[in-house]
């Protein structure tokens, strides 16, 4: 029996087709889709795109998919989003064969295999989501106003801010200044870059993608870049503390994990987060599985409540699968 898990955020939508034994038959990645921006029709088109792709790769018909679970950004954050999201999925796969929730749930499910804990998600946006031993849930951050503190977007904005302050003399110049000029081909006056900076770099998906460049600068030993990651870690940890307080979770009683593109920066963000965790007497633990796998297991659990996530070990090396990158 086939199941489909989908994790859709602001930057990417990841589809994974598997079964209860952990065999993975197909993967597909496309551009992100958030329900607040896309609406019902946008979600339906994205699900149609992904379902068609994984079925084509696996050589199956969509009627063979027992259940699809979709974790999507913005679910539950606007009137009608729950209904519209489910309707969009059922129009693609059929009535009674879909379950939907916010992408925060998929991140937590993958990181903790549905066990109590707090998960930090940082990609285009940032949100902290946790579940305690009694099954109560809480979240912090993720308002989407401007850019969520600690997100990739926020880190990209901080990099631009650091460059402009170094360029016009408000702060001392570091390696960051020269590396930024080289990356964007600035060979004249910094002020001549103003239009390009605002129209091309800051616009659209430019800011979250800048976080990758910030990682390079940090790894080059730049103190300004390191301070940005340290500030980002503090912002994210404020969310952890808020969620723990809401849920009555005490130090030593829970772990904190993470998912999202920010954590591809590795030690740049994980080392300052680790120091904050240690200071609070909390365990910072690597995610057991990713958000797409969390969604896949949620699809299985929805159809088979007796399913044990701890027994789920993905076996991608045993099957033929393909990534279609957007």
List keywords for this structure.
alpha/beta; 5-stranded mixed beta sheet; 10 helices; 18% strand
Structure overview:
With 326 residues, the chain is an alpha/beta fold. It is built from ten helices and ten strands. The protein has helices at residues 35-58, 81-93, 103-112, 152-167, 175-183, 194-201, 206-219, 223-247, 267-279, 291-303; strands at residues 2-8, 12-18, 24-31, 65-72, 98-102, 117-122, 126-131, 137-141, 255-259, 283-284. A hairpin with a 3-residue loop joins strand 6 and strand 7. The longest helix has 25 residues, at 223-247. It is globular. Residues 318-326 have low confidence and may be disordered.
Number of helices: 10
Instruction: Give the averaged pLDDT, no decimals.
Output: 91
Number of strands: 10
Secondary structure class reads alpha/beta
Unreliable runs: 318-326
Query: In angstroms, what separates the terminal alpha carbons?
Result: 28 Å
Strand order of the largest sheet: 3-2-1-4-5
Percentage of residues assigned to helices: 40-55%
Cα-based radius of gyration, to the nearest Å: 21 Å
Order of helices and strands: EEEHEHEHEEEHHHHHEHEH
Tell me the major beta sheet: 5 strands, mixed
